[in-house]
């Protein structure tokens, strides 16, 4: 598809800047791309098809949208085509510096200190609040009779 070079250049600049490009599967030639004013969605799809056939972009389809991801060869090609310095990388390949978050206190330390949001457990565990019934230690045997299923033996 023939298109003016400034449109192709704007498509490639957006692709290199973000590292990912999204386009809607739409056959309407008049619909413009939402991120590129003045560029038709069909032109974006054709430019990406050209890059995909050369192995510079990987394509994924989901419902009515197509997603194009730059490969390493695509980054090198676009860096040369757009005449960019080697230290410039796409946003999808940049590492985001995350602030060092303080590590949370361990549960036991917070529970013993009494300052945390956790309640201290009793030393005996769950057994402290359960009452011991008289017949708790006694288990009644279960007898199986042929063809009748499971039944209990009457107490003696």
Considering the chains and any ligands shown, give keywords for the structure.
single chain; about 160 residues; alpha+beta; Arc Repressor Mutant, subunit A; 3-stranded antiparallel beta sheet; two-stranded antiparallel sheet; 4 helices; 5 strands; about 15% strand
Write the layout of secondary structure elements.
Blueprint: H1 5-18, E1 20-24, H2 41-53, E2 57-62, E3 65-70, H3 72-81, H4 107-113, E4 142-145, E5 149-152
Antiparallel strand pairs: 1-3, 2-3, 4-5
Describe this structure as you would to a colleague.
There is one protein chain. With 156 residues, the protein is an alpha+beta fold. The chain has a domain at 5-85: Winged helix-like DNA-binding domain superfamily/Winged helix DNA-binding domain (Arc Repressor Mutant, subunit A, Orthogonal Bundle), CATH 1.10.10. It has helices spanning 5-18, 41-53, 72-81, 107-113, and strands at residues 20-24, 57-62, 65-70, 142-145, 149-152. A three-stranded antiparallel beta sheet has the order 1-3-2. Strands 4-5 form a two-stranded antiparallel ribbon. A hairpin with a 3-residue loop joins strand 4 and strand 5 (149-152). The longest helix has 14 residues, at 5-18. The model has no long low-confidence stretch (mean pLDDT 81).
